Amino acid sequence: MIKLWETGAFLENGKLVPQAEFKGAAKEDAAKNTMAYSILQKHNTSGDAAKLKIKFDKITSHDITYVGIIQTARASGLEKFPLPYVLTNCHNSLCAVGGTINDDDHMFGLTCAQKYGGIYVPPHQAVIHQYAREMMATCGGMILGSDSHTRYGALGTMAIGEGGGELAKQLLGKTYDVNMPGVVAVYMTGTTRPGVGPQDVAIAIIGAVFNNGYVKNKVMEFLGPGVANLSAEFRIGIDVMTTETTCLSSIWTTDEKIREFYALHGRENDYSKVEPNGVAYYDGVIEVDLDKIEPMIALPFHPSNAYTIDFVNKNLKDVLHETEERAKVSFGDKVNFNLTNKIIDGKLYVDQGVIAGCAGGSYENIVAAADILKGKNTGNDKFYLSVYPASTPIYMDLMKNGAAVELMKAGAIVKTAFCGPCFGAGDTPANGALSIRHSTRNFPNREGSKIQNGQISSVALMDARSIAATAANKGFLTAATDFDRDYSNKKYFFDKTIYETRIYDSKGVAHPEQEIQFGPNIKDWPQMEALGDNLLVKVVSEIHDPVTTTDELIPSGETSSFRSNPLGLAEFTLSRKDPSYVGRAKAVRDRADEVKAEIENVCKALNVKPSDVQVGSTIYAVKPGDGSAREQAASCQRVLGASANIACEYATKRYRSNLMNWGMLPFLYKSGNQDATTKLPFANGDWVYIPNVKKQVAEKADSYKAYAVNPSGKVTEFELTTGDMTDDERKIILAGCLINFYKA
Predict the structure, then answer these.
(1) How far apart are CA 191 and CA 196, in angstroms?
(2) Domain check: are 613 and 685 in the same one?
(3) DSSP SS3 for 7
(4) 482 in the same domain as 380
(5) Quick one: which of 28, 431, 531, 647 has the fewest CB in 10 Å?
(6) What gap in Å lies between CA 25 and CA 133, rounded to an integer?
């Protein structure tokens, strides 16, 4: 299905040639002919093709992130949105918990859109990425979003998901700074079989590239003859999942089918041809033979735990036991995670199905699911199915053409546009249950269960078609290709009337006289301290999992109501992974009596004066930051007094950027064994001293001498690095955070 090339390649006349066999253009020249290079340089303001300073065409946020972004920008001098900014309300749409605080944030968003000249999409109208596809994407354009799945490459738009600090920079007229990324070709051939959907292709790709970092922080460029055999929505469904590969962004060649997509949405003028320019060079190649893609399943607890459904069904006991063993790395003995008990008469029984959000809620996915379930039913046992169309225009057309009726007749519950099932704010399964979902992620607890309360359920990712086939089979795992069914391929008719009726679009006109409506839960950011000359940090959490997700750093579902209250939200930091973290961090921040005594003893061992050191905290994790772009994963640590992270590597650029935007040093500890078994010179509870840190940051030091001090007073010298930082990133860290930097 998937083949990874070990070398780079040249693309000439639509065909790939291995780097060693190509006799034409030089690699450096041909690298400038990729689609990615052309779009990035068009938006680059630095004058340096290698060191990019990007200004985006548009930005977009949802209601977990936009309050913090606007509050950051307001504190830094915001007067007007200088570019189109869309505020969608698709995460905290239910307003079901926390009193008035969810809708208070929505009113904050509406009044800010009015005051500063933005676009406000009310709850239940569209999920963030569907609205962007329908109304914002343009061929050759660039969009920045405060959600990690900001991906519109199939529509010819390079889109990047980042933490809120990067959007605040755009609102303040600043730039997104990044080195020119590598570009990897995703070369597609063949045609998918009936029953195979976009999630199947995506899971196969993720399974092939995630663990080896093949596309980490690179751009995935989709091309080849197979692209033309995929509909626009099919391409979109693959594209949105590229985030789970840890790539920086994505871009696809465009053609008549993409032109038709723009025309359907009344925006044909936003279409143009996007393709490589002449001979192009790629740093790697992912060959995808669409003919050979089979229905896939990503078992808990990561989209890269990829198998064919057929393989799982034939090897149930072994595969499920293997998954249970992997889970022990994260859960230990906190809970009894069991999947083998789902085997009934040699078949895997699942408890729930969900088709939702930016990945699953497309028109074509839902129509295909309705076709499979026509004349069938989900039964009246434990299994149930929920379907969330990604926008109200999609929902309306599904009602008009009868697809929604077929789903409801089969027993499915059809709901409004909502991202909740993707991050634990809707359809949380029962304890011990297994859910199959066409959504973006299946990280631990992202479905809403709480390890700290002894609750554990789990999610396996699948395509809508195989979820529907499983539903038709009363909850027993079934590949859609095993389900003989004709597909209606109903044509979609987009009607934007509801958008014209309900969405507030300022057309870029600000109304400075508009008062912002604040709720009692909306709080300003606490004061952040500038970096001191010498830094002394206490290690208050030590995590040896191979990868630590942002959902483990700051849980998504139950915390989302507090996302506008920095101090309230910070109380949840690492609550699923290390419940003692908050107390230990606050003790350092607030200089508890026992901490004062420790500082005295540590300084004595180091022969330095307590008055000469700045005290903070840090966590150690092997590879933190996979997953969501939410800057709260970093800002919550900062609010609790953190000054740094120490890691073997950072899972994503966006998490590392979040750390720096909140004034935290992204330290790297390098050893010969960069994995979960890495032997450290410090342990949880030890102190780490970095002398002259302010001077070294300012002078762009390559490495930092550090000294670990354990409770007995033993001092161990070791070395830290920070990796490459831009001049502005250094200034932000020196200032203490982005807000301080722009105030100055």
Answers:
(1) 10
(2) yes
(3) coil
(4) yes
(5) 28
(6) 36
Structure confidence by residue, pLDDT tens digits, 401-418: 999 999 999 999 999 988
- With tokens 């779009």, the residue in question is 39
More confidently predicted of 335 and 217? 217
Residue 296: both structure tokens together: 């896939």
For residue 494, pLDDT beyond 70: yes
Cβ atoms of 424 and 437 within 8 Å: the answer is no
Beta bridge partners of 715: 709
pLDDT digits (tens, 9 = 90+) for 359-368: 999 999 999 9
Q: What are the φ/ψ torsions at residue 651 (nearest 5 degrees)?
A: -65, -35
Q: Which domain holds residue 423?
A: 296-497
Model pTM score: 0.90
Please tell me the total count of domains within the chain. 4
Strand arrangement of the beta sheet that strand 352-355 belongs to? 306-308, 296-298, 458-461, 434-438, 352-355, 384-387, 413-414
d(CA 744, CA 111): 28
What are 616-671's pLDDT values in tens digits?
A: 999 999 999 887 777 888 999 999 999 999 999 998 888 999 999 999 999 999 87
Pairing relationship of beta strands 687-690 and 704-709 according to DSSP bridges: antiparallel
CATH number of 130's domain: 3.30.499.10
SS (H, E, C) 563-577: CCCHHHHHCCCCCCC
* CA atoms 40, 726, 240, 313: torsion sign: positive
Strands 15-18 and 158-161: unpaired
**Interhelix angle 653-661/164-171, nearest 10 degrees:** 60
pLDDT at 527: 87
